[in-house]
TrEMBL record:
The keyword RNA-binding does not apply. One of its GO terms (biological process) is proteolysis. It comes from the Bacteria. GO terms for molecular function: peptidase activity. The keyword Membrane applies. Pfam families: Rhomboid (PF01694). This is Rhomboid family intramembrane serine protease. PANTHER family: PRESENILIN-ASSOCIATED RHOMBOID-LIKE PROTEIN, MITOCHONDRIAL, RHOMBOID PROTEASE. It is a multi-pass membrane protein. The chain crosses the membrane at residues 32-48, 84-102, 109-129, 141-161, 168-186, 192-210, 217-240. It is found in: Membrane. Belongs to the peptidase S54 family. Keywords: Hydrolase, Membrane, Protease, Transmembrane, Transmembrane helix.
Length: 249
């Protein structure tokens, strides 16, 4: 037992190293609170869709809406089909399994970054295969779902586990099965899965390089680099459309 002044404790804390994860990120809480928060948001949005169709209409992404409402590229990743409970059920189960694992491994900041970047990459990759001309009815086909981000996390697990000498055979099997199902089950945006996978692998690769060289700057440079590439692809898609690039914003 003893008494310490507040200033003494503060000065002592300055000299202590903050705990970090195995990948050099800032360690978070013992429980995957960020993963739980993302799941809660998705569930609340889905419940809102049950109450009013307007919720789906306000957050879903359609190619023709991208130039005027670009935030839909990201908000659509927090919504799911209101008529298919298995859609949100599978995505949230997968997110809980891999999300909690990665959150503890990467730290909450890097984990949030990879989730958002891969979610955006999934939407943009799907966009690349769609018509964007407002005069084309297909340009108003909506997309929702967190699967782009989930597949991005799948890829990150494989890359990071390989770097750390851990087994990922089970994850490879899951990706293979879902890749086949994407071509068998109708209305599955396999393009979003592909975009998320590639983006997740690239970001995870940057994290492994950052760990090897003990340079957090490399990790964030990699994350921002993938984000920049995704944005360029989206802008390029609209710029090369028959109607030209519409103002983003």
């Amino acid at each position: 037992m003893g008494v310490q002044c507040v200033d003494c404790v503060r000065e002592q804390a300055k000299g202590e190293r903050r705990p970090v994860t195995v990948l050099g990120g800032r360690a978070g809480a013992d429980k995957p609170y960020l993963t739980m928060a993302i799941i809660a948001i998705c569930v609340l949005v889905w419940l809102g869709e049950q109450v009013s169709p307007r919720v789906f209409q306000e957050v879903a992404f359609a190619p023709a809406l991208g130039p005027s409402e670009p935030w839909r590229l990201l908000t659509s990743a927090f919504a799911h089909s209101p008529n298919q409970i298995m859609h949100i059920g599978f995505n949230m189960f997968a997110l809980w399994i891999v999300g909690g694992y990665l959150e503890q491994m990467m730290g909450w900041a890097r984990y949030l970054a990879i989730y958002l970047v891969t979610a955006l990459a999934g939407s943009v990759t799907w966009l690349l295969f769609q018509p964007v001309d407002p005069s084309d009815p297909g340009a108003y086909t909506p997309i929702v779902g967190a699967s782009g981000a989930v597949f991005g996390l799948f890829a990150a697990v494989i890359v990071l586990n390989r770097h750390l000498g851990r087994d990922s055979s089970g994850m490879l099997a899951i990706i293979g099965i879902n890749a086949v199902l994407g071509f068998i089950i109708p209305n599955v945006a396999w393009q979003a899965h592909l975009g998320g996978l590639v983006a997740g692998a690239l970001v995870a690769l940057a994290l492994t390089v950052a760990r090897s060289r003990r340079s957090p700057v490399i990790a964030w440079a990699g994350i921002l680099g993938v984000l920049a590439l995704v944005v360029v692809l989206a802008v390029g898609k609209y710029a090369l459309s028959p109607t030209g690039l519409l103002p983003l914003g």
